[in-house]
Amino acid sequence: MKVTTKGQVTIPLKVREDLGIRPSETEVDFVCDKNGNWYLKKITPKGNSRFKNAHKCVKPTMTTDELMALTRG
Questions:
Q1: In which domain, by residue range, is 23 found?
Q2: Is residue 18 part of a domain?
Q3: Within 10 A of 9 (CB to CB), how many other CB atoms are there?
Q4: Does the pLDDT value for residue 18 go beyond 80?
Q5: Three-class SS of residue 44?
Q6: Structurally, how many domains does the chain consist of?
Q7: What is the three-class DSSP state of 53?
């Protein structure tokens, strides 16, 4: 696979599906082992995002102030 001028590559669909990598939800890291081999590692987030939690509670009739209160914890 080719690397763009910004150093980006596309993770193949099969790999994303197998690892459960989802756009805007999943973080990955590159890890080097003792032999100098590099690996892509899915990062498990610690705790829940307050924005993700707020998303579950939002109602279409909420005011801006109510929405902001949800994101501020």
A1: 13-71
A2: yes
A3: 10
A4: yes
A5: coil
A6: 1
A7: helix
